[in-house]
Automatic annotation (TrEMBL):
Source species of the chain: Labedella phragmitis
All residue ranges annotated as the PTS EIIA type-1 domain in the record: 479-583
Membrane-related topology note: Multi-pass membrane protein
Residue ranges of every copy of the PTS EIIB type-1 domain listed in the record: 4-86
TM ranges: 100-125, 145-165, 177-193, 199-224, 244-265, 285-308, 320-343, 355-375, 382-403, 423-446
Recorded superkingdom: Bacteria
Record protein name field: PTS beta-glucoside transporter subunit IIBCA
An example Gene Ontology molecular-function term: kinase activity
GO cellular component: plasma membrane
Keyword Cell membrane: yes
A Pfam family per the record: PTS_EIIA_1
Signal sequence interval, chain numbering: none
Catalytic residue list: C26
Keywords for the protein's UniProt record, in alphabetical order: Cell membrane, Kinase, Membrane, Phosphotransferase system, Sugar transport, Transferase, Transmembrane, Transmembrane helix, Transport
Length: 616
């Protein structure tokens, strides 16, 4: 994957960097909060190499990338001049806010998504260390064990300090002050007070609780910090505010946490853990069936972020995670459904997608390729996966199986389930989770995909000018992503007329809602993007009139868009229009580029096929 090209395409598809209020990433997705969601073009984004699919949930526009999402996010951060997900913009706060539930999900996503992979990695190390002790491979009284335990448990122990960083970024509080407050909560002398009688603070009785691995107190504390800091900065003189603001915040909020926030948060945590415990103690099959059956549905709508903190709370309170165990069934069930598709389909394309998607789900627990690429579009396999997850999850919960650490459910992290129940029950449950959807897919089938006709590429396909105007090199385009060829090779035209014509015969594969950009795939397989003007997406479609639609078949010279050059120029926008080849894996170079005055229909450039494409 070309991370820079994918990032540039995604940014263009969401309406440009100026339309992004914030963006964070989780394990597999870019999560955008957009100023105007109408400017986003999901169809165009889904056509970008490296993008699996898009979704809208929790007040966010989500772009599913897969395991390589951190690299794409890093490229987006470079383009936007920073890490836009690490702050909340005033423009976002001033915009219409989503409902309370969506805002809560967005907050949880922002706080926990940066921690997720390290949290899961540390959890897997804890599980492997626990298994090593159980099998007698390591003696728990040795210094070796102590060091390995520190490596695997340190992240969980100091979770409040780590969570303070992400909370400070989200709530726009001072990170160092947030870390100092969280450090006070896990200070050794404070930890030693847990459970001690007659603890007081200036004579006020304190119900001392453990803040090790805690979640709720630090989030509340940093949220309050953000408000107190803004108040103090507004009231204190500039000569003293930098010293006295953190000092007052530390003294007041840590004291308040010991006296009020901590005990209340502990009561909430205990209540949540008790509720989960009651469900899995008294109706375990029901709890397991709901979790195992609906988890992937929760993931699709993004609401699973509201459940992940409950798992961490449960682990803090009980030392195990009953909620997590049935999720293994949910993941393996979707993988089993994909295997059924792999066996039954006659589509070479679908088989080519199914094998890596199944491996990704089985080993890494990353189900997005399986769900969005195969099961959900085919409908029945996804439903059969839900059935398998529910049955397997019910057996796991009924067997009293829990996870002894927080991990991402996958084949590699299965050791966290060993030791809490019968191994045979666990193996039966996991086998059922895979076999049930696999068999259902084979028996009841699905509407199979028909492979597209093979594409025959010409080594030198002629692209004609879609505009009247002046042809100039891409390097003269006042937009870095086009000018440096990141989005593809081609030519730009400074138009003198307001009609855009088709540069090749083929299919219209993308029409941006604002009318400023069109994507065409030629009959020979060349994929061409025409972007009328620079940053013209900001016009919201004003001065553009599209005369075609996605899926339309066009001939070279057909009218695609009418636009008002005078009005667009008067609004302050540069009309330089790049015409680029986006599938540069098949057509990496152009030849015979035009220059100077040009009319629509005149030769613009040759799209030169790669050796592999030319040989097809």
């Amino acid at each position: 994957m070309d991370y820079g090209k994918t990032a540039a395409g995604v940014l263009a598809g969401v309406g440009g960097g100026d339309n992004v209020a914030s963006v964070v990433h989780c394990a597999t997705r870019l999560r955008f909060e957009l100023k105007d969601t109408a400017k986003a073009d999901p169809d165009a984004i889904r056509s970008i190499p490296g993008v699996i699919t898009t979704a809208e949930a929790g007040g966010q526009f989500q772009v599913v990338i897969g395991n390589e999402v951190p690299e794409v996010y890093a490229e987006i951060a470079k383009t936007t001049g920073g890490a836009p997900g690490e702050r909340r913009s005033k423009e976002r706060d001033d915009a219409a806010k989503p409902n309370v539930f969506n805002r809560f999900i967005a907050m949880i996503s922002a706080l926990f998504s940066p921690l997720l992979w390290v949290l899961a990695a540390a959890g897997l190390l804890k599980a492997l260390l626990s298994a090593s002790v159980a099998f007698g491979w390591i003696d728990s009284t040795t210094t070796t064990y102590a060091m390995l335990n520190a490596i695997s448990d340190g992240f969980f122990y100091f979770l409040p300090v780590i969570l303070a960083v992400t909370a400070a970024k989200y709530f726009e509080a001072n990170q160092m002050t947030s870390m100092a407050m969280a450090a006070a909560l896990v200070y050794p002398a404070i930890v030693a007070l847990d459970g001690q009688p007659d603890v007081s603070f200036f004579g006020i009785p304190v119900v001392m609780v453990s803040y090790v691995s805690s979640v709720i107190p630090v989030i509340i504390m940093v949220w309050l910090q953000s408000h107190v800091e803004r108040f103090l900065y507004a009231k204190l003189h500039s000569s003293i505010r930098r010293l006295f603001t953190p000092m007052i915040v530390l003294l007041i909020l840590v004291s308040l946490t010991f006296l009020v926030i901590g005990p209340l948060a502990n009561a909430v945590s205990s209540g949540l853990a008790a509720g989960i415990g009651w469900l899995f103690d008294y109706v375990p099959a029901l709890g397991g069936a709901i979790t195992g059956g609906l988890w992937q549905v929760f993931v699709i709508f993004g609401v699973h972020w509201g459940i992940i903190p409950l798992m961490i709370v449960e682990f803090q309170e009980n030392g195990n995670v009953a909620l997590l165990a049935p999720i293994f069934a949910a993941v393996l069930a979707q993988a089993g459904a994909v295997l059924g598709v792999l066996i039954r389909t006659r589509s070479k394309q679908l088989r080519a997608l199914s094998a890596p998607a199944a491996i990704s789900a089985f080993l890494a627990g990353v189900t997005e390729p399986a769900i969005y690429g195969i099961n959900l579009p085919l409908k029945r396999p996804f439903a059969f996966g839900i059935v398998g997850g529910a049955v397997g999850g019910a057996i796991i919960a009924a067997g009293g199986i829990t996870a002894n650490a927080f991990v991402l459910a996958s084949g590699l992290s299965l050791p966290v389930l060993f030791g809490s129940g019968s191994v045979w029950v666990l193996l039966i449950a996991l086998a059922v989770s895979i076999v049930v959807p696999f068999v259902l897919v084979l028996v009841f089938g699905f509407t199979d995909r028909v492979d597209d006709a093979p594409v025959t590429a010409s080594p030198d396909l002629q692209v004609v000018s879609p505009l009247d105007g002046t042809a100039v090199p891409l390097s003269q385009v006042p937009d870095a992503a086009f000018a440096d060829g990141s989005l593809g090779q081609g030519i730009a035209i400074v138009p003198t007329g307001g009609t855009l014509f088709a540069p090749v015969a083929g299919e219209v594969v993308a029409v941006f809602p604002t009318g400023h950009a069109i994507g065409i795939r030629s009959e020979d397989g060349v994929e061409i993007l025409i972007h009328i003007g620079i940053n013209t997406v900001e016009l919201g479609g004003e001065h553009f009139s599209v005369t075609t639609e996605k899926g339309a078949t066009v001939a070279a010279g057909d009218v695609l868009v009418e636009f008002d050059t005078a009005a667009i120029a008067a609004a302050g926008y540069d009309l330089t229009t790049p015409i680029i080849v986006t599938n540069d894996d098949a057509f990496p170079t152009i030849g015979s580029p035009a220059s100077g005055a040009i009319r629509h229909g005149d030769p613009l450039y040759l799209a030169i096929a790669s050796e592999a494409a030319a040989a097809r």
